[in-house]
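Subject: Protein record for review, amino acid sequence with backbone structure tokens
Concerning: The relation between a protein's sequence and the shape of its backbone.
How to read it: Take the token row as a discrete description of the fold.
Enclosed: The protein record, placed directly beneath this head.
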Amino acid sequence: MAFEIGHMYIRLKLFFKRLFYQRPVIWPILEFLQGLKYAVNYYYYYGLLDGKKGLSVREVNIEFASQCNLRCKFCSLDHDKPKQVISDEILEKFLKGFVTNKRYSGIKRINLYNGGEILLHPKRMDMLRMIKKYKDLARSKNLAFPEVHMLTNGMLLREKLAEEIIEIDAVDLLGVSFDGGTPEWFEEMRVNAKWPPFYENIKGFDRIRKEKGSAVKMCAISCIPSDKERSTEWMHPEFQEIYGLLDWYELRRFHNWAGEIEEIKIPEKKHKIGCTLLMEQMVLLPNGDITICCNDLNSKAVIGNITQTDFLDIYNGKTRREYLKLHLQGKKNEIEFCKGCETF
């Protein structure tokens, strides 16, 4: 039931985004209201509760592997940084919170992605089994456990791997990232990616989930050129076919990854208060580092490490609280990482 409600919420949010995003008056009003929500959350969680009760964070991203097999033209990932994969010790240290501390019930979603490709982890199935272990343990104790969303570029999602992911039953939703609208643009934008195997892999996963009667959902977040409408009507028939298999999808414009992609200019948002990502998200990196949001693909806004500091102490730590306060005051430009971001 909770998953279906979340699914309906996503569809409603996408509907309003498509309806109002290009409206010069209405969209800023919605963003202003979003800012009021940020202010309410700030004063409740970090004022009234002083960061010591409850949890403003609604989702935690977990990066299994820091490296990627693609070289997408619009991505800010630094491919020269050290290649790291998460260990079972670090993953388990985080997951234990869901069966030992009721505050973790505020986390509604675990996203298995950040900058790297999850399927490059050599023990990816063991990591999923560990998540399944804690999901089952939490439920046996009548404790909440988040939805688990996994995102992949799909190039390694071959039939055997697809079957394993479905059989382990740790993942509630499989997201696939693909862009362009045509096979030619797909391969041009996503360097090293090839459309034919991607197309077959995604169709294969959908076929297997249906054959096995799996409850896992499928979705996509796709970036499309700025001169094209946010619809699938103009797209290649095979793109339209893939979108037709999915439970939901979002068509987006490119963003600048917190100023890392200089070619993408961002609108000035003087009306915008706060940042939803900063308030509601944290990211666990393979080495145990915690960074503030999913726009930080290169560890430039790390605020702690769970091998040295408890996750909840990082959540309520001095650096993160200072960032939250500066966003509330409209002073995000004083944060080196945030100053070039369009703010979410």
The two ends are 28 Å apart (CA to CA). The first strand starts at residue 59 and ends at 62. The chain has twelve helices and eleven strands.
